[in-house]
Amino acid sequence: MSDILVRGISRPVHIQIQKFAESRNLSVNQLLIQLIERAIENLDEAEEQEKKRKEVFDRIRHLREEIRKKYGTFDDSTKLIREARDSR
Predict the structure, then answer these.
(1) Considering the entire predicted model, what is its pTM?
(2) Rounded-to-integer distance, Cα 33 and Cα 47, Å
(3) What CA–CA distance (Å, rounded) separates 54 from 27?
(4) Cα distance between residue 30 and residue 36, in whole Å
(5) How far apart are the C-alpha atoms of 23 and 17, rounded to whole Å?
(6) Which of 21, 60, 61, 81 has its Cβ near the most Cβ atoms within 10 Å?
(7) According to the model, what pLDDT value does residue 20 have?
């Protein structure tokens, strides 16, 4: 096991940490270890979600390219809708 020294924690935050630890019957050290472990898990999950999101967007870009190659480009539908409304 390794030790980490954290400096510069403000007094209000330190008091809050102590209160949380006491309310959970934990030492400050135990509480901080739990908080760090949860934060790391959340970071891992966020990175995994970002990776999946990037893969989806990459796939969408690829599909758009395939559609553009196969069918070409089309006019902006906003312009067509406006023309249809104005012709009434």
Answers:
(1) 0.56
(2) 21
(3) 41
(4) 10
(5) 10
(6) 21
(7) 96
Tell me how far apart the alpha carbons of residues 7 and 14 are, in angstroms, rounded to a whole number: 11
Q: Are 20 and 31 in contact (CB under 8 A)?
A: yes
9's tokens: 């924690």
Q: Tens of pLDDT along 22-79? A: 999 999 999 999 999 999 999 999 999 999 999 999 999 999 999 989 988 877 888 8
Q: In whole angstroms, give the CA distance from residue 28 to residue 50.
A: 33
Reduced to 3 states, what is the DSSP secondary structure of residue 33? helix
Return the amino acid letter for 76.
D
**Cβ 28 vs Cβ 17: under 8 Å:** yes
